[in-house]
Amino acid sequence: MASSEFQKNTNMYVEHSAQGGVLESGEVHKNIDDDGREKRTGTVLTASAHIITAVIGSGVLSLAWAMAQLGWVAGPVILFVFSFITYFTSTLLADCYRSPGPVSGKRNYSYMEVVRSHLGGIKVQLCGIAQYGNLVGITIGYTITASISMVAVVRSNCFHKKGHQASCSVSNYPYMIIFAAIQIVLSQIPNFHKLSWLSILAAVMSFAYSLIGLGLSIAKVAGAGHHVKTSLTGVQVGVDVSGSEKLWRSFQSIGDIAFAYAFATILIEIQDTLRSPPAENKVMKRASLVGVFTTTLFYVLCGTIGYAAFGNDAPGNFLTGFGFYEPFWLIDFANVCIAVHLVGAYQVFCQPIYGFVEGRCSERWPDNKFITSQHAINIPFSGHVYYVNFFRLLWRTAYVIVTAVIAMIFPFFNHFLGLIGAASFYPLTVYLPIEMHIAQRKIPKYSFTWIWLQILSWGCLIVSLVAAAGSIQGLSQDLKAYKPFKSQAHE
Distance between CA atoms of 50 and 197, rounded to whole angstroms? Predict the structure, then answer.
């Protein structure tokens, strides 16, 4: 294969040729893009799959809980508002992939490079801390969430056999280890460009469990004698919760919804997989529209119908939290779909981390054979050759193991993830795209466009601060009951 030959003596993430796409024989390589890297093959379909895989996490199943805190009015309004904000800022960011012009400028391969090209200064470091901190946090959170789904399958079968009142206590730890073992293997996928098949599979899984959750909720609403308490303003103070609980839960719910759409952390990396022509920014805007529209549709349906099914007592996750017990085989299948989806989503979020570290190491130590050299391995019965890089093998394996260990030590990490989301949502999804758009288009200070962009930016900053406060309060409650290294058995 020509592309395999091209990769033989290069770092498999960076994938650039020192000869700018000219082979030793002097022939120009046909599989080279305008920047000397391997020809990109991404389309609207693959980019949309990446976005849906990243965005529709198992959090879609907790939206009924968020709707219960906010009620019939505020819940759907906040969902639609943040879907619009996310789509709008993603279009601004898509125009910044190339600089100085969005169509013919120089490519930028990561969010940090985009910020360096358009803004520079301390904002580059701010972007790096927010982006990679968020990505590391998500991979740890996904390890916990995937293990909860695997445990839910075991517990579902136990409840079916022993009755709904049985304790059915199961430890998360073995399932975190299984998830980490799978990720160690998948982490040897060289880069984002080779991930499209996994993203499409994961996107199909997310549709499957969302539809199952939706179908079970509709069946519950339509069932005989169904009556639950819902209201325009959500859970009632003095009846369901205290005044302070209502406030903190509302803050947390607004944050959950705002962060549920965010994919700015990986937008540039996704855009860098797109073939051209047509122009990458146009394809990315279409993919963002497809991704955000699809996500909003699922979020509104799962949130509203889930709230109608469970009312103010909606569980945090109605598949793993046992809002449903039967049909047990369908709930098992849905939880397997969640686990498979998270296997793919983990890769979508960790590949930019791998690329960043490997790219930096290659720049720092270009003559180090351990970091740069590839070793060919023939894959039996396939006729393909896989190139192993020992540095990539060791570093990626170590990363997966470390994230799994952190997940085991801090089982309440998902509350911490809310805080990471709050800290990264504003700079990555709102502030930096708006600032780069202003710089790129040279929008005059205090003009009408400049003023309304600043109003949007400040409004989202307030949302981030409010959500951060909710997450800190949730964390403080967790820490009171925290015992280090205590096995988290689900009961």
Answer: 10
Looking at residue 148, its amino acid is I
Q: Any idea what the Cα angle at residue 273 is, between residues 200 and 107, rounded to 5°? A: 160
Instruction: Report pTM.
Output: 0.82
For residues 234 and 318, the answer to whether their CB atoms sit within 8 Å is no
Strands 170-171 and 98-99: unpaired
**Contact present, 206 and 59 (Cβ < 8 Å):** no
**Phi, psi at 24, each rounded to 5°:** -60, -30
- For residue 293, give Cα distances in angstroms to 82, 83, 227, 300, 386: 12, 8, 31, 11, 38
> CA 221, CA 217: separation in Å to the nearest integer?
6
Are the C-beta atoms of residues 465 and 459 closer than 8 Å to each other?
Answer: no
The two three-digit tokens of residue 107, written as one number: 């490519």
pLDDT for 24 equals 40
Rg (CA), the chain: 23
Res 58: pLDDT: 59
Distance, CA of 235 to CA of 245 (rounded, Å)? 10
The predicted-structure confidence for 469-482, as pLDDT tens digits, reads as follows 888 887 887 777 76
Segment among 340-349, 364-373, 402-411 with least mean pLDDT:
364-373
Nearest to 349 by CA among 281, 255, 420, 412: 420
8 Å CB contact between 132 and 353: yes
Rounded Cα distance, 151 and 116, in Å: 44
Q: Other C-beta atoms within 10 Å of 73: how many?
A: 12
Closest C-alpha to 210, from 294, 145, 315, 308: 294
Q: Tell me how far apart the alpha carbons of residues 449 and 103 are, in angstroms, rounded to a whole number.
A: 23
Enter the tokens of residue 446. Answer: 């205090």
Cis peptide before 278 (omega within 30 of 0): yes
pLDDT in tens, 293-334: 999 998 998 889 989 988 888 887 767 665 667 788 888 898
